[in-house]
Design brief:
- InterPro entries: Aldolase_TIM, OMPdecase_type-2, OMPdeCOase_dom, RibuloseP-bd_barrel.
- GO terms for molecular function: orotidine-5'-phosphate decarboxylase activity.
- Keywords: Decarboxylase, Lyase, Pyrimidine biosynthesis.
- With 269 residues, this protein is an alpha/beta fold.
- The protein has one domain: TIM Barrel (Alpha-Beta Barrel).
- Helix content is 44%, strand content 16%.
- The chain has 12 helices and 10 strands.
- α6 links the parallel β4 and β5.
- α2 runs parallel beside α4 and α2 packs across α12.
- It is globular.
Amino acid sequence: MTTEQLVAEIRQKKSFLCIGLDVDLNKIPKHLLALEDPIFEFNKAIIDATHHLCVAYKPNTAFYEAYGIKGWKSLEKTIQYINENHPNIFTIADAKRGDIGNTSTMYAKAFFEDLSFDSVTVAPYMGKDSVEPFLAFEDKHTILLALTSNAGAFDFQTQKVDEKEVYKHVLNTSKTWKNAHNLMYVVGATKAEYLKDIREIIPESFLLVPGVGAQGGNLQEVCKYGMNSSVGLLINSSRGIIYAGNDENFAKEAAKKAEELQSQMSIIL
């Protein structure tokens, strides 16, 4: 999917909501556990109930890898279901990969070619030769960890090197990489006060913003400092939406929570 197609979907739906599909078998409704593939059935119900309210889905791959080959198959079925039934929805493999040379190329092939995701999250710590293999794929997007929403972000990301925070070095350096136009960035909603400085460095790039909802991030603050002329934001909510209900009406409850966010986004737009 191209950036232009993503922006068109945002304008059409009046939404820049991304729903995180982080499936924990200990949290999903118990009646699903009797089914052959409870992970996929949970995702399918959430997708069927919310696809008109969001522009992106983001499965965190750890929640699938934890269940071995069965979990990976559930992930494969989930992404196929989205691509076949809702091809205009942007898909994000939240895998946080990052390695050098051929290894990165193989990671990219796994998510972009085999599973047909539109994008994948990547860690920048190993530098250019760990990220450029992902950037080589046309109309695919690499979402670089820049300033994350967790408390440990302050351990390294905001520390200063040559009087400039590390996350700013990441942003500036990444712009020089080959096919940098395929880059997006992760910036946590709990770091909204940093968005003004971030936009001075990458004014046009899309930002994937986790942390609205269960982590306490403020949607209005994020939009005030982070939105650009193309919207430029994907606001992710995972637990706050998918676990809104825990009975046979769980998908309807999820849709209610998604609609609350979408309605706020519609007003902002």
